[in-house]
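Re: weekly structure request thread

Next one in the queue (339 aa):
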Amino acid sequence: MPRTLVTGASGFIAQQLILDLLEQGHSVRGTVRSAAKGEALKAALGAHSDRASEIDLVEADLESDAGWSEAVAGIDVIHHLASPFPMAAPKDPDELIRPARDGALRVLRAAKGADVDRVVLTSSGAAIAYGRRGELPGRFTEADWTDTTHTADCAPYMASKTLAERAAWDYVAGDGSGLQLTVINPVGVFGPIRSAQVKTSVDIIARLLGGRLPLLPNAGIQLVDVRDVSAAHIAAMNDPASVGERYIVADEFRTLKEVAAVLRSAYPDRKKIPARGMPDFLVRALALVSGDVATIASELHKRRILSSEKVRKLLGRDLIGADDSIRASAETLIEFGAV
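Done, posted below.
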């Protein structure tokens, strides 16, 4: 069994991946930003796996060289998931771009220095489907890249994911020659959370359940389940043919109205789940004072659809349906008292 390192071990996808790796018999090391985060992580994962106490945790930060040589020592495969994930765009885009890009390079250089052959890196659909001028194509594929120069359609988060992934590919084509890299590009990741600390795209579900988004803008998102993202990481790790490849992990597109409808059907007693739409003019007005709403405003009436044909072949199966993923998010958010 390959000895595995999962960076950003306390993250949403990382927690699911660690549990799946443990279940399949792998030894797992993870990086965390502090010892306190590490203790909280082991306690949280202990509720799902009796092997959680075996996880070896190392303190390491994307913006520092400290800890990375210890993290990669004796490792066969690195799953690099650590990356900033803001709910609103920062004033300075470099607050996201620098740690994402430099952090990816820091991990790859450490891997090269420790003779680690295999790296599976989590990028994003954000590195594929943004920075567009004019009409969106019917479907994006792994051949597409976000144009970071067209900032009207490329927020700092999209730029950070794109530039980090490009830097990774450039590194393995140059100084990092010999490293075997595969990149996983998920869209909006939903599904069951494994601890109360998770704060990512599932926060949309928490906001809808709690009535913190009382009206529904005419926008939506393509979804994928966290369990499928984890499965794609492991399948890529085990398949030599995946080296040098990108894999979009994406299921169905859902508007916010459709997401809310799934939640109302599942939880009819939760009266705060919204049903009414928000006029476009109001969304744009609120976007002037709210970074969260500005992110939504940029997606009004847009449908960015990314093809999952390639990852379905890698997995040899279909993906978990969007509505099942929405319900799993809601069920676990309620279970952990997050709403």
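The chain has twelve helices and ten strands. The chain has one domain: 4-335.
Next request, please.
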